[in-house]
Design brief:
This protein is of the alpha/beta class and 240 residues long. It has a domain of 139 residues: Hexapeptide repeat proteins (UDP N-Acetylglucosamine Acyltransferase, domain 1, 3 Solenoid). It contains 7 helices and 16 strands. Strands 3-6-9-12-14-15-16 form a 7-stranded mixed sheet. Strands 1-4-7-10-13 form a 5-stranded parallel sheet. A 4-stranded parallel sheet has the order 2-5-8-11, with no helix packed on it. Strand 15 and strand 16 form a beta hairpin. The longest helix is centred in the C-terminal third of the chain and has 30 residues. The N and C termini lie far apart (103 Å). Bound molecules: coenzyme A (COA).
Length: 240
């Protein structure tokens, strides 16, 4: 019984220490979660139950150790944090104030990624490389950017300030400030709050749309086959 009480006291003390360290070292992240998540009602809930807060807490320690050139341990810590949050943040990434990672599972932030202030990432977001580059190979994300669930932002590209990236978009080209990008590959659907006429502004990012091209090619082939069949039937009628 005494043993159980001792364990409980130790756990409560540990929880209290964790609470105060996180509360005072992660003020901007906690504020971001409270402001941007309608479900976040109490600070202690955010501190104890938000995976994004835990991942960022460990990232801050790992990042500091990496800056002190400590070998191995920063990556190890980042992998431990990944194990129980599902969020992998490389210790070398540069992250601004007020990042909110909502839900978190499946988020990956690469080594040379740069994240501005007041950014929101939902579950399944990758700020990754394309697999072909070396050096700076991950994206630079501006301030006040929202990256929707499952979106992938790949390569050494820049996402401007106040950009919304739609859920499941795959963004592989630089995006200007104040834009909304959706789809695969990512296309600017809105700029400065105004819908882009025609829905897609290909000039803006110079992106070809492979899906649309494939559909157009198929339609062309169907038209051609229908025309040939029509000609064939006309010929048959004439013969009769
Ligand atoms: C993109 C997003 C941020 C909205 O930004 P917005 O600037 O308000 O843009 P709008 O809603 O006006 O949409 C602009 C256009 O993009 C389309 N669009 C919006 N989101 C899209 C998406 N994820 N995929 C494809 N198209 C999308 C809209 O239908 C609209 O098209 P239209 O002009 O032809 O009607 C939002 O739709 C989104 O995807 N948010 C992610 C939220 C999320 O991940 N939640 C997870 C919670 S667990």
């Amino acid at each position: 019984m005494t043993c159980l009480v001792n364990i409980l006291v130790a756990l409560v003390l540990l929880a209290a220490v964790f609470y105060f360290i996180v509360r005072y070292s992660m003020k901007s992240e906690i504020k971001a979660a409270m402001e941007r998540d309608p479900a976040a009602s109490r600070m202690y809930e955010v501190i104890f139950t938000y995976a994004g807060i835990h991942a960022l807490f460990f990232y801050k320690i790992a990042n500091r150790l990496k800056k002190m050139s400590v070998p191995f341990f920063p990556r190890f810590l980042s992998q431990v944090a990944r194990g129980f949050t599902g969020i992998e943040i490389h210790p070398g990434a540069k992250i601004g104030k007020g990042l909110f990672i909502d839900h978190g599972m499946g988020v990956v932030i690469g080594e040379t990624a740069v994240v501005g202030d007041n950014v929101t990432l939902f579950q399944g977001v990758t700020l990754g490389g394309t697999g072909k580059e070396t050096g700076k190979r991950h994206p630079t994300i501006g301030d006040n950017v929202v990256v929707g669930a499952g979106a992938k932002v790949l390569g050494n590209i820049t996402i401007g300030n106040n950009v919304n990236i739609g859920a499941n978009a795959v963004v592989i080209r630089t995006v200007e400030d104040d834009s909304t990008v959706v789809g695969v590959p990512g296309r600017v659907a809105k700029k400065l709050g105004k819908r882009i006429p025609g829905g897609i502004n290909l000039d803006h990012t110079s992106l070809p749309d492979p899906l649309q091209q494939a559909i157009e090619k198929l339609q062309h082939e169907i038209d051609h086959i229908e025309h040939e069949l029509g000609e064939y039937h006309k010929g048959k009628h004439k013969d009769k």
